[in-house]
């Protein structure tokens, strides 16, 4: 089998794996799907990214697995298991640093009353 044929076979197997995965997801209730969001995102990212990659150097290895998509998906997740606390802390600091006025127009504040219209404001004396 040529490298091109192996790559084609790998793409076909990964597509079949992805199609089976999607069918499996369709039978799950919404709360389960929400819990699986990172897994689903990893499968989609790996599948879509592989679509336009040169896989010939990896075809021999990956064709040894019944479900190469699952292998790649799991390894992607493992490679990206990082502690996001520092990044979230940076976002929190950025929000705090900009202050309430920066966000008040776009995000509702608790207990904030709507600004009265011009008619409701009445006349003020200088």
Mind explaining what this structure looks like?
There is one protein chain. This protein has about 130 residues and is mainly α. The protein has a domain at about 5-80. It is built from 8 helices and no strands. It has helices at about 5-25, 30-35, 35-50, 55-60, 70-80, 85-100, 100-105, 120. Helix 1 crosses helix 4.
Task: Write a brief caption for the model.
The protein is built from 8 helices and no strands. The protein is mainly α and 126 residues long.
- Overall pLDDT, averaged? 90
Largest sheet: number of strands, sense, barrel closure: none
* Beta-strand percent range: under 5%
Question: Which percent range fits the helix content?
Answer: 55-70%
Counting helices, strands and paired strands, the structural category is mainly alpha
Shape: elongated
Count the E strands.
0
The number of helical segments is: 8
Low-confidence stretches: none
């Amino acid at each position: 089998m040529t490298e091109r044929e192996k790559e084609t076979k790998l793409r076909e197997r990964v597509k079949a794996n992805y199609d089976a995965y999607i069918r499996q997801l369709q039978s799950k209730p919404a709360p389960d799907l929400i819990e699986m969001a990172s897994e689903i995102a990893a499968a989609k990212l790996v599948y879509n990214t592989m679509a336009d990659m040169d896989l010939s150097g990896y075809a021999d290895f990956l064709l040894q697995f019944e479900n190469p998509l699952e292998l790649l998906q799991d390894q992607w997740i493992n490679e990206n298991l990082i502690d996001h606390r520092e990044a979230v802390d940076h976002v929190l600091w950025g929000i705090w640093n900009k202050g309430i006025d920066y966000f008040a127009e776009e995000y509702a504040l608790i207990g904030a009353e709507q600004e009265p219209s011009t008619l409701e404001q009445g006349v003020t004396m200088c």
